[in-house]
């Protein structure tokens, strides 16, 4: 079976461990978000790609959900001693090696998709990890504060401001000029099932869909498309997805996010949305997404067994 999933960072990566466990013999392709990427100290950092790679490769910090386990932050301390920031981005020593290898490969002219493939030789995540694009797409957030209206990098908004300063808009810079990375469109066209994990629907899934061609490929694939709600009972399960949803005028509810993705209306309606199925928590069982079937089961990914059960429920909703 060929499974294709769009994934962001921590939530998406946890979900993917369940996909691998539920379908140990499947060919799994992950289309990873690169909008979180940032250049710091001259190094290109790809947080969501690294989080998928480390989580599925066994190198993730279980405590943080990002970065490496058994991590140290000596270089970050030394940078701080020089008064060189930003202090709000946790730059780990082991993680630094990943950024050094990636940056020297990019500087040598290798496209990001080749860099990801090379890094995955070491980590062997058990899935094919593709960046959504080889072109740079970088999410920036427009805020208004005492310095007036200005754009800051998503990571600064997320980590320094903890998304507490309302975003007047969230912009995936460069998306309109980006093209899907090699293999992305085929992975969507050839899949037996396409999954939208409970990643951030705006800055993770939304950014991937903003790359021209990808939303269309999801909308028209012959594979069933099933999403899993990242919102339970009106609250984001993790992260600050609610702040992102508010920024784009979408209510923080399982129903609003499902309707934001839209149903595909396979049963005759115009194919406007992406979803054939939308999996919600029982507390949101009354959810309606026109054009998509809604099913409910507990969605807290408390451990691998529970995550695997959630994945199985999504696959059942997909009819695969
Ligand atoms: N998330 C944090 O909450 N604090 C950090 O200091 C932090 C550093 C960091 C470094 C490398 C990396 O791959 C991820 C990192 N993250 C951190 C997560 C990162 O901000 C993600 O982009 C968001 O969590 C959204 O997915």
Q: How would you characterize the overall build of this protein?
A:
With 320 residues, the protein is of the alpha/beta class. It is built from twelve helices and 14 strands. It has helices spanning 10-22, 47-57, 74-81, 93-107, 112-123, 154-160, 184-189, 205-209, 214-220, 241-247, 254-261, 304-318, and strands at residues 2-7, 27-32, 38-40, 43-45, 128-131, 138-145, 148-153, 167-173, 193-196, 225-228, 231-232, 235-236, 277-280, 293-296. The strands form four sheets. Strands 5-2-1-9-10-13-14 form a seven-stranded parallel sheet. The chain has a three-stranded antiparallel sheet with strand order 7-6-8. The longest helix is centred in the first third of the chain and has 15 residues, at 93-107. The model has no long low-confidence stretch (mean pLDDT 96). Ligand FO1 is lined by residues 8-10, 36, 47-48, 50-51, 66-67, 89-90, 95, 155, 158-159.
Cα-to-Cα separation, first versus last residue: 9 Å
Low-confidence stretches: none
Strand content: 15-25%
Q: Give the ordered list of helices and strands.
A: EHEEEHHHHEEEHEHEHHEEEHHEEH
> Which distinct ligands sit in these coordinates?
ligand FO1
Shape: globular
Strand segment count = 14
- Rg from C-alpha positions? 19 Å
Q: Roughly how much helix do the residues carry, as a percent range?
A: 25-40%
Main sheet summary: 7 strands, parallel
Structural class: alpha/beta
Average pLDDT, to the nearest integer? 96
Strand order, sheet with most strands: 5-2-1-9-10-13-14
* Number of helical segments with 4 or more residues: 12
């Amino acid at each position: 079976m060929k499974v294709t999933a769009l994934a962001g960072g921590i939530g998406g990566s946890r979900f993917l461990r369940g996909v691998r466990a539920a379908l140990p013999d499947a060919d799994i392709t992950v289309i990873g978000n690169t909008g979180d990427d940032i250049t710091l100290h001259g190094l290109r950092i790809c947080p969501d790609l690294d989080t998928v790679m480390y989580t599925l490769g066994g190198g993730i910090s279980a405590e943080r959900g990002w970065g490496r386990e058994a991590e140290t932050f000596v270089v970050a301390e030394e940078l701080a001693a020089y008064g060189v920031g930003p202090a709000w981005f946790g730059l780990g020593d082991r993680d630094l090696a990943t950024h050094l290898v990636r940056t020297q490969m990019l500087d040598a002219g290798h496209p990001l998709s080749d860099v990801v493939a090379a890094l995955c030789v070491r980590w062997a995540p058990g899935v094919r990890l593709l960046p959504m694009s080889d072109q740079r797409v970088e999410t920036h957030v427009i805020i208004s504060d005492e310095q007036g209206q200005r754009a800051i990098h998503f990571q600064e908004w997320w980590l320094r401001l903890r998304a507490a300063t309302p975003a007047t808009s969230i912009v995936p810079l460069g998306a309109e000029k980006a093209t899907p990375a090699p293999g992305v469109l085929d992975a969507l066209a050839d899949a037996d099932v396409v999954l939208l994990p409970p990643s951030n629907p705006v800055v993770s899934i939304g950014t991937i869909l903003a790359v021209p061609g990808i939303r269309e490929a999801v909308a028209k694939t012959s594979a069933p498309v099933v999403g899993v709600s990242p919102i339970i009972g009106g609250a984001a399960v993790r992260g600050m997805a609610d702040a992102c949803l508010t920024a784009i005028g979408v209510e923080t509810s399982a129903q609003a996010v499902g309707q934001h993705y839209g149903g595909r209306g396979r049963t005759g309606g115009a194919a406007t949305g992406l979803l054939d199925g939308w999996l919600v928590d029982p507390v949101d069982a009354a959810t309606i997404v026109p054009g998509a079937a809604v099913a409910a089961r507990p969605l807290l990914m408390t451990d691998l067994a529970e995550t695997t059960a959630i994945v199985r429920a999504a696959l059942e909703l997909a009819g695969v």
